[in-house]
Amino acid sequence: MKALCIHAGPQALRHIGRHGLAPSDVAVIPAAAGGPKGLILGPLDRFVFGEWLAQSAQPVDLVGASIGAWRMATACLDNSLPAFERLEHDYIHQEYELPPGARRPTADAVSAQFGQNLQAFFGGRVDTVLGHARYRLHIIAARGRHLLAREHRWATPLGYLGAFASNALHRRALALWLDRVVFSTAAPGALPFDVRDFRTHQVALTAQNFMPALQASCSIPFVLRAVHDIAGAPRGAYWDGGITDYHLHLRYQAPIAIENIADTALPAGAAGQNGLESAPGIVLYPHFQHRVVPGWLDKGLPWRHRATPALDRMVLLSPHPDWVRSLPGGKLPDRTDFTRYGTDTAARARAWSTAAAAAQQLADEWAQWLRRPDPARVQPL
Q1: Closest C-alpha to 296, from 345, 369, 365, 245
Q2: Which of 141, 227, 234, 369 is deepest in the core (most CB within 10 A)?
Q3: pLDDT for position 268
């Protein structure tokens, strides 16, 4: 059974048909939110960053939200192979003490332990991440506005109810409730995607704000506490970057200059006018599905799951649905497993370890395809 599906946008398809794919072609690597689903991408991460990209020398922009941000920060460590292995092990074996009679831990407990885990993983190595010679790291978080400006027992649920309703009407209306904030090691205005689709702040990623920015990017509402008032960033409550940019369906392009906030959406058909078609580089996207969903609140809105011209230069790697059905439970690891397995953390760890080990087939098939690129195996996005 084949495990790997390869999809590509029109420009990427033409490039593959003419030239195949070389590591020097890659300009951007996104990494999605999705919690435990990202475990199946560990072998691909180790191959791409540990072997394949090492054969080239060009700068690469790494864009991540939530667990994807942790993955991309890991790629910026020296000798990233053992770091990726440790990330996989630590994520699989995470364990939270449950209050008596509770089915899940409190948000306070999860946030406290998550912060400790970040410190244990990156402590003493933040400068290495920030100063990587090739990789520019971009961590996405969502900053609350109005009722979501501060976390509150009653205001926060009401605010997210408003965000859900507004987003259902139009994705841009989500900006009434949330901003996109990009903590970045790139120069001001040098983000690798157009930000005029959504109100966006670019903030310098520094040693002072790295830990809170990464924790904020992973802070799922009601599962973890929001992170407030991050150094160097606008005041407010910061939550999981996947809320605004679940699968990072962004207009990838050459960097453009921006001020703090972008309020104007691009007109239809304007991608080429803004450098998307002329900008160099392939967007290589190891992902856990072939649909690129814009925001977390769009999961139940299938008409927003379609590919757009923003993805024209993307090569997306994802597991075949039949292969997914061969995994424990017939599915990818996900957050429902915490409830499904309850206090039997050993059983959950076994299921997740089995899925992560099986995912080596994804990396092996991608390496094989790169040795002899076959355009016929690449499907349109």
Answers
A1: 245
A2: 141
A3: 36
pLDDT-derived band at 255 (thresholds 50, 70, 90) equals very low
Report CA 150 to chain centroid distance, whole Å. 24
Residue 376 domain boundaries: 4-380
Beta-bridged to residue 224, according to DSSP, are 221
Q: What is the DSSP string of 148-186?
A: GSS--TTHHHHHHHHHHHHHHH-GGGGGGTEEEEEEESS
Yes or no: say if 380 and 13 are a contact pair by the CB < 8 Å rule: yes
Contact 296, 243 (CB under 8 A): yes
Q: Are strands 227-228 and 200-204 parallel, antiparallel or unpaired?
A: unpaired
What would the pLDDT profile of 49-63 be if each residue is shown by its tens digit? 999 999 999 999 999
Measured at the alpha carbon of residue 206, what is the angle toward residues 211 and 120, in degrees to the nearest 5?
30
pTM over 0.90: yes
Question: Nearest Cα to 146, choosing from 164, 158, 132?
Answer: 158
CA distance 246 to 275: 24
Q: How far apart are CA 95 and CA 20, in angstroms?
A: 44
Whats the size of the chain, residue-wise? 381
CB neighbour burial string for 131-147, b if at least 16 within 10 angstroms, e if fewer: ebeebbbbbbbbbbbeb
- More reliable by pLDDT, 265 or 213: 213
User: What residues pair up with 143 in beta bridges, in sequence order?
Assistant: 179, 238
pLDDT mean over 71-80: 97
Q: Is 369 helix (H, G, I), strand (E, B) or coil?
A: helix
What pLDDT shows up at residue 215? Answer: 98
Amino acid at site 317: L
Instruction: For residues 64 and 53, give the distance between their C-alpha atoms in angstroms, rounded to a whole number.
Output: 18
CATH number at residue 177: 3.40.1090
Strands (E), 237-353: 237-240, 251-256, 282-286, 314-319
Q: Please state, as a whole number, how many other Cβ atoms lie within 10 Å of the Cβ of residue 37.
A: 20
Is 368 buried (19+), middle (13-18) or exposed (0-12) by CB count in 10 A? exposed
